[in-house]
Amino acid sequence: MSIAFPDGFSWGVATSAYQIEGGRHQDGKGESIWDRFADTGRMPESGDIACDHYHRWQEDVDLMAELGVTAYRFSTAWTRIIPDGAGSPNQAGIDFYSRLVDELLRKGITPWLTLYHWDLPQALQAAGGWLNRDTVDAFVRYADVVSTALGGRVKNWITHNEPWVASHLGYGTGVFAPGIDDLGSALTAAHHILLSHGRAVPVLRENSQGCEVGIALDCRPSQPASADPADVATNRAHDGFRNRWFFDPVLGKGYPTDITAMCDERSVFEQPGLPFLRPGDLEEIAAPLDFLGLNYYTGVEISEGDEDGMGVVLPEGPNQPDGYTEMGWEITPQVLTDYLQHLDEVYRPRSIVITENGASYSDGPDESGVVADHRRIAYLDQHIRATAAALAAGISVRGYFVWSLLDNLEWTSGYKQRFGLIWVDHATGRRIPKTSYYWYRDFIRNASRLSP
Ligand code: IFM
User: Rounded to two decimals, what is the model's pTM?
Assistant: First the structure.
């Protein structure tokens, strides 16, 4: 018996603008918060050149066509489209994505466009970034400009990628751009990001008739390390801030009240309550979606005193024990099945798309140029099976995107963390499809069947 997926299931790969494009100063592109973060020494390497996809995009589309994916998820750089975030659109930037979309369609690959994968225009950051409610309007206008230009051809839209990362790592701990470390700021930024998502949905529907709209939420599904009430309570807080704070409002349940009470107890804001919340916001955030995007990498066990779950993540590096990727993340495919079931039961989304799943391993070319990344194949195989198990349980999963097409800039971890199906020599830009690329190609060709 083999495991089969339904006809029309989307098999894809995913990337994001800052991580692959380069072309930093090309054709009128403006400065983003990640350009500034790199320039001020907050990362080991910058995305100035990255995979040079800005110049090599045709080669990359050819590689996708050869791979046989039916869908490609990429993001547009706000600073290419509207260099200062709120002023005049830049036709050269729009043209770049327009050519990309045309070429994808010509090759039979459906474009899935993410509007925001963290690269806020620095000019908006200078006015407060996501702490400033005006950024919501700027995002909605950006969504309008992109969907007016591309909405006749792009029919799958993702408003935001991983709002938890953008808000908590960007504004809560400051390890990501723009580098602010304050929990109240993280929650404020998260709210404005979610509000901009909800407000953009009707704009996308208007400009791209018949389109499907979703958001890509990241998650760290968790369970308490033991039945000890202290572990259970810490796990609840972890799950609340990390997962429910985003899934709940987007799917119509408002902010989780146990966590808002915790904010009051911890005096996160000067007064009890959420100062950024205005009447009507939650209704707008809960705009009905066609699909819920889920970015899944790992699940964690939470112990007392480790609300962030940092204690269960190993230090990054190549020499991990079995069962961990080089990000130090445990490989937990069963958690994916369980979490898909949980999301289906609790939120009843219309459908779910796995908008990211993948593993970082640094395997490079051997003497004959072969990149034998068998650990990545094992990871993908296990997670695709985990997805199949959710489908078999009756959950409407409609697509699966491997993160990532190319080895790219893994943010503050630099280029040494390699998630790609294609190995990239970052000195020359040379691409070498890895063994996992051929494995995924054959899997898709074989009508998406896995042997038992
Ligand atoms: O590289 C990132 C991506 O930008 C967002 N999701 C997780 C990936 C791996 O860390």
Answer: 0.98
